[in-house]
Amino acid sequence: MNQKMQWLRNQLLSLNLQGMIVTNPVNIRYLTNIQAEGILLVTRKENIFITDGRYIEDVHNTLTLFDEIVVYDVRGLTKDDYENFFMFCENVGFEEDYVTYSKYKEYIRKYKINNLVETENMIEKQRMIKDEEEIGYIRKACQITDECFEYISNYIKPGMTEKQIAKEINEYFYKNSDGLAFETIVASGENSSKPHAIPTDRQIQKDDVILIDMGCRVNGYCSDMSRTILFGQVPQYVKQIYDLVLKNQEQVLKEVKENSNTKLIAKMVDNDFRLNNYDLIHALGHGVGLDIHEDPVLSFNSEHILKENMIVTDEPGIYIAGQFGVRIEDTIRITKDGCEVLTNSPK
Amino acid sequence: MNQKMQWLRNQLLSLNLQGMIVTNPVNIRYLTNIQAEGILLVTRKENIFITDGRYIEDVHNTLTLFDEIVVYDVRGLTKDDYENFFMFCENVGFEEDYVTYSKYKEYIRKYKINNLVETENMIEKQRMIKDEEEIGYIRKACQITDECFEYISNYIKPGMTEKQIAKEINEYFYKNSDGLAFETIVASGENSSKPHAIPTDRQIQKDDVILIDMGCRVNGYCSDMSRTILFGQVPQYVKQIYDLVLKNQEQVLKEVKENSNTKLIAKMVDNDFRLNNYDLIHALGHGVGLDIHEDPVLSFNSEHILKENMIVTDEPGIYIAGQFGVRIEDTIRITKDGCEVLTNSPK
Q: Which are the contacts of B164, defined by CB distance < 8 A and separation ≥ 6?
């Protein structure tokens, strides 16, 4: 059995759970490498993956005997099979943040479970700390992102549309990585005031603000980087806001390390923005891994203590409605006494 | 207030619900046209959309006074605000197939709701029947899909990779529609035996089976079409299976109409496959709309009665593990006495 499944079994033991139903596909991939629709049951004796005809062949190709996972086709399972899986289990864990209310009721009925127990995102929490292999994938994804940014910086010319630039970034990622980590944002001029803008047919002007937010995947693991390009001559107050965002973004890079409190870091940036009459309207950052947004969130609404080998973003932004926006973002790895910046494109 | 929101309010009245929490973003888009993260509250007096700073500007641009929707920034809401929304409501509906178990518990606590009631996918059920505007979007998406297929049929040459062909399809859709309805499948040779294949670097051979499953979006509404191309000379047994799939696919087109029972239609195909020692390993079809897969499912595991202006796929397939697969799929609109086939590429 692999290390991650072994970790899960030890967790279940320590929590007095005799079984668990894992349904979040990202958690299933994390634990087993399986990328298929289905459900992972950890029972007293076995690890079971239930899937359907569309995926059986693929799953068999992914797994080896070493994985110790039994694969079932959902169409071959009877009412009795389901009731037997967790027989003699007093407590069975489930993912309350992922399972819908109707599935929750269905599980109790279908598996005849005495006590279906919330597991408080224990797998997501474990996923926050990356091992060497995971760090390697993210480092590679960040490197490709830097290379893409260098390429695109030379590519952008006045008259091009946001869509055209986004398409060029996407093609670069499709060619050089395993695909996009999320829908690429290219937002120029007044469009950049929307933190979540979708590329439009707006053409880049001779003097313009261009906000690019992009990331790719390597073996499922994501990178995430934003840069705001001040193209040509922009008004002085745009530069002032750029400098304010950059100052705070770099301050965070200087201050984070193992045991930093995420709430305090986010508050530090928000306070400085407020001193200048602006607001931090979204989180300062988020974890990055198999999901583009995962724990921990770096925000003054929640509190996490950073640990070594967490990989998170640092992405303060200021947005002036209808005018422009500035966001600068790096993906970083937390270390014992600071951080390793994984995206290194010029700011 | 628009017709769809008015419909929802009437539904709530008839179900003795004094309010509802709508959380499925596709349902929110369907009802309000809003495309943003957030939550729609239908209270006794008001329609409320709660979102965050990233979307406020966009949401305001989408809505007009006629919509009668009040927009709140989540950061401005207090504990009291939440508790007031559903004050004096005895029963409040929620989407049990969409809301997680932990959100369910949070809603009860946060909104102080007496009775949070399952609504049995009533919005999804309403979405099954399309109005003229929705049909127009899907018809347009299907037309673009046909044009793309004609283009790609002439484009494919031996030596090209599956990825290359998929990329060409994707670019066509990005250029001519609002984007992909789902990840394009181009699966050739033995790869076509996986119903859910991801395009690889495998090159098209002189004599080959190529399965293409593709669809685009127009104003959010999807098209869905599969064709299996027998390229050059393929063995006789491949042709036999192709003919068996095609015969059944066309039989369905002939037989469906308003009041058809989906279980019986799927059983008809499965029976014919079984007579020939094959299996229908996935559903025969599914509804198409703002979601690429929506109700009704056409499968022998579930039972729906088709109604006029439902839009569904007809997509039987046979897969020989490790060798090849054949799937032929059209998007169709159910009519009073038959169906209108919306995708018309040659088979």
A: none
> What is the per-residue pLDDT across B221-253, written as a single tens digit (0 to 9) for each?
999 999 999 989 999 999 999 999 999 999 999
Residues B221 and B108 occupy one common structural domain: no
* H-type alpha helices, chain B: 3-14, 25-32, 56-62, 79-85, 101-110, 122-128, 132-155, 162-176, 236-255, 262-275
What SS3 state is found at A112? coil
Determine the Cα–Cα distance for residues B227 and B208; give it in Å rounded to an integer: 14
- Average pLDDT of chain A is 96
Give B33: exposed, middle or buried? Use CB within 10 Å, 0-12, 13-18, 19+.
middle
Q: Which residues on A lie below 8 Å from B57 (Cβ)?
A: 193-194, 321-322
Q: Which residue of A has its CA nearest to B198?
A: A58
CA distance A124 to A97: 10
Q: What mean pLDDT is predicted for residues B326-345?
A: 98
A102 contact B CB<8A: yes
B298 shares a domain with B160: yes
Among all residues of chain A, which has the CA nearest to that of B58?
A194
> pLDDT above 90 covers what percent of chain A?
92
Specify whether B162 is located in the same domain as B80: no
Distance (Å, whole) CA B50 – CA B72:
5
**B80 and B205 inside one domain:** no
Q: Give yes or no for B76 touching A (CB within 8 A).
A: no
Domain that holds residue B61: 3-127
SS3 B265: helix
Q: What is the mean pLDDT of chain B?
A: 96
Cα–Cα distance, A284 to A264 (Å, whole number): 11
Q: What pLDDT is attached to residue B302?
A: 87
- Average confidence (pLDDT) over A187-194: 95
Q: Looking at the structure, tell me whether residues B306 and B170 fall in a common domain.
A: yes
Lookup result for tokens 């004599």: B207
DSSP, res A196: T
Residue in A113, A196, A198, A200 to test binding to B, most B beta-carbons within 10 Å: A196
pLDDT digits (tens, 9 = 90+) for A217-259: 999 999 999 999 998 999 999 999 999 999 999 999 999 999 9
Element (H, E) at B339: strand B338-341
| Beta carbons of A282 and B52 less than 8 Å apart | yes
ipTM of the shown complex: 0.78
Q: Do residue B195 and residue B337 come from a single domain? A: yes
**Helix and strand element counts for chain B (H, E):** 10, 18
Type of residue numbered B74: V
Question: Which CATH number goes with the domain that contains A245?
Answer: 3.90.230.10
d(CA B87, CA A151): 56
Q: How far is A336 from chain B, CA to nearest CA, in Å?
A: 33
Q: Would B215 be classed as within a structural domain?
A: yes
Average pLDDT over residues B85-112: 96
**Chain A residues close to B94, C-beta within 8 Å:** 101
Interface membership of A321 toward B (CB under 8 Å): yes
- State which H helix or E strand residue A163 sits in: helix A162-176
Residue A197 contacts by C-beta under 8 Å, 6 or more apart in sequence? A185, A187, A191, A211
Tokens of A44: 């007293």
Listed by number, the residues of chain B in 179-238 with a beta carbon closer than 8 Å to a beta carbon of chain A are 193-196
Total tally of structural domains belonging to chain A:
2
